Structure formats: C-alpha cells, structure tokens
Amino acid sequence: MATGSCFQVKEHIELTEIEKKIFDRLLNTLRHFNLQTQLRVAGGWVRDKLLGKECYDIDIALDNMLGSEFVDKVQEYLSSTGEVAQGLTVIPSNPEQSKHLETARMRLFGLWIDFVNLRCEDYSENSRIPTMKFGTAEEDAYRRDLTINSLFYNINTNLVEDFTKRGIEDLKFGSIVTPLPPKATFLDDPLRVLRAIRFGARFDFTLDEELKKAAACDDVKTALAAKISRERIGTEIDLIISGNQPVKAIDHICDLTLFWVVFDLPPKIEPAVSEECYRLSAAYLDATWKIIQLIGSSSFDGEQRRLCLYSALFLPLCSATYKDQKAKKIPAVNYIFRDSLKRKASDAETVINIHKSLEKFLSLIPSLLLNEDNQLTEVDWGKEFVDVPVTSKLRVLTGLLLKEIKHFWRVALLISTLLYPTDIDCTQDIIDKNFQLDKRKDLFVSVESAIVKLGLNKVWDLKPLVNGKDIMNVLQLKVGGPLVREWQQKVVMWQLAHSSGTAEECLDWMRETHSKRLKME
User: Fold this and answer.
1) What is the DSSP string of 85-151?
2) Is the pLDDT of residue 297 over 80?
3) What pLDDT band is residue 357 in, cutting at 50, 70 and 90?
C-alpha cells in the first residue's frame, strides 16, 4: 500500500446536466434496440471526476460490439425521436501511428464522445504495435498504463469499477503505479514511461519505487529509443512543457537518466556537450518557471510560456552546432526540435532566434537600466549606425532587436536575466539552485519598464513613413534592388530615432543624406 500524501477522492461521480443528457440518450438507445451492451466510461474522465476536476474527454468502452456499430444504433435512435446526430466519424485503426483500434466519434450536446470496444492485447518483441482482440473489462483495465487510469464508470449501473483493486487507493494516496509489473508494462509500450512521469507531475503524485527502477533500466531506455516514434515522444514532451508542473516532470526525466534518450543529440556536435549538461538544463528550466510565477503568468500567453520554457531548457546548447550533409553548420537545438521531438519548424526557429538575441539583449541591459546611451557595449549588430544620433542609439538598437523577435521579446529578456551580469559566471549558482529570484525578477521588471517607456512595445507593427517607391524617387532609381533595401533599413532606424517624425521630414533627411553621399563619392 502507498504511504504518501492523502488526496481527497469522491465516493461517487457527480454528473453534470450535459453528461446526464448524453448518458440518457445512450441508455435509451440500449432500451430501444433491446441491447445487452454494457457502457463504460474509461480512463481519464473517471480519474478526474473522482478528484473533483471537470473533464470533457469522454471515452466509452463497449463490451460486445465495435464503436462504429453502436454509433450507428445511436444515430438511428436519435432519428426516431426527431433529433439529429452531429459530427459522426470513424477513425480507422492505424498501427503504424500507434492507433491500434478503430474509434467511432459523435458529437452529443456539444461534446465529442469516442466509442471503442473493450480489448486485450499482445505485443511482439520488436514493436509497440500490439495484436488486438475483444477483451473483458478486467483485461482492458490491466492493459492500461497506470492504475489511476484503469478505472471505469459503468453508465448502466451508475457505479465506479476498479478491476485492478487498487486504482482508487492509488488515487487517494497519490501513487503512480502500473497495473502489471512495471518493466513488462514499459517494455510492451515504452511511451508509458513518459505518461507515468507526466501524470505524476500533473497531479503531484509519487512515482512508485519499482516503477522508477524499471523506467531507468537499460532495457526500457533502449526500447523507448527503438520502438516509439519520435512524434509520439515529442507530443508527450509538449504536454509536459505545457502542463502545470513542467519542472517536476523534467526532474523525473533527469533522475531516471532519460534526458538524452528523449532529447537525442545529433552526431559530431561542436562544442562537445558534457554528460552532466542536462542538470544545467533542468536548473535553467526551474529558475525560469519560478521567475514566471513571480512576474505573473499574465505577462506571457500560453505559447510564449511554452517556448520560454523550451528556450531555458535548451539554453546550455544554444551555441552547439553540427554539420548537415552539405557541411552546413546547423544549431543543435534545431535537430532536437525537428528530429528528436518532431515538432514544428516554427518552434525551432523561435527558440533559436531567442537564443541569438541574448547577446544583444545583454549588451543593452546596462543602458536600459540607466537610460543612458553611453553605457552601450560593443556587439556586432551587422548594421551601420553612422546616421543615428548618439542620444537616440539606445532606442534604435532596442527597437531593432524587438523587431527581430517581436512578440517573444519578453521571453528573450527573461532568459537574459539568467545570464546577467555577463562578467560573472553564475553557472554553478544555477546548478546549485541559488537562483537569486527576487534580483532577477526585479531586473526583468526594470528593463521591461524601460522598454515600454521608450515606446517600443509592439514596435514591430511600426509602419514605414515612406515606401519603396518614395525611396526610388529620392535616389532617382528606375528599378529596386539592394540599395532600396538598404535605405528601407535606414528609414526604420530614422523612425526609431525620431519617434514623432513625419514622412516629409524623413524624405528631407533622405535627400540631404543622399546628396552628401553623392558629393563624397
């Protein structure tokens, strides 16, 4: 028996009015066709309802027919009463994508309901794709990943069914346990390791000791790398990072020595990454998560928070590269997103851009804190600033940086606070979790306030005062080209330096500057 914290678990499931209507329609279908089918809501919905949480993900398991067959019956019954079934669809089985059973879906009272048959399964040695067949409710319960996910709510009897005899107990004591021996469970489907970690973190439950031993063993790690598609691993990691306890989950991944299995690195990475680098990654994530809480979650939307956490997690790898088949240097972070996790390209691009912006942000922070241009340190911005007044240089440089990273500038600022000041190596402090959170939070707030006072929030939406045609007229060009693009950049800098300047003033400056250049040539 588990001996951890005690969690409040309801004795009975209380249905919402919509759930009552949905289940009534399904039971009426049974009566209408005189069916002997047992209808059971499975898994997460039962768990969440017993914990007093709402859940809108209703999966119904049938004991004697396929989901598609029952959905046809429901549709026929609803038609006989004058109701119209919505959104009927059948999702065929696709073992290659880990979809082992046909699933029928229909929409009732605004909620999508999935219907599948109860099943048991056998796994081959080198695949996570099982052989599926009809099973009993008990067999179905024992084939599930965790005891807390193996509970059923029997719609026919209005009772919770705990066929493993410990699902409710593990809910009460906050235990993450597999219904069958953990090593066999994980070898059958190694993705269950990450699911166990995710649910443990999400509910603040304790991972069973035998489960942890199994998850960390070489056989399971090898199976996770060999049998599970990278898309599936990436989906689990994204759910973890987007969840309510990402730090706890990543700590589990580190403690179970799964970090480099999950976040697989490219071959011949330069500079070489130390084996213990994952500890620094986890520490940066921890610090970032805590600073977000201190700042207030309203400063970041869900997407910004998610990519902020990824940026922190991969911060120790920000300068690491590898060479592709054409010998081109590619950031290692790109490989992790695109190959190890199979995430979308835009995630990789955003995190890499955030990492690239850090040096510039760090060079600006002293000046932004003092609002003095003479504090600016030398960084290669890749642009000429000969026409920018000294008194406006801070606003111009900060504006150009924000235009590069747009909505993610606060993310870049937060990550920069972990590295500031640059003349002190804080790596060991971060690993030791000596985060100095209040100091970093105050730094973030001060710099953020300075940027807002400069009128640069949403500067990327700034519309040019003059267009390409205007520039061509001033330069007396008949066709566009690199020179026009160069002047478009100069116009942006002029606007940043002259926040209340007009189009005519900008054109006058262009004519004067162009005339001087012609005379010098």
Assistant:
1) -EEEEEE--BGGGTB-S-EEEEEETTEEEEEEE-EEEEE-TT-S-EEEEE--HHHHHHTSS-GGG--
2) no
3) very high
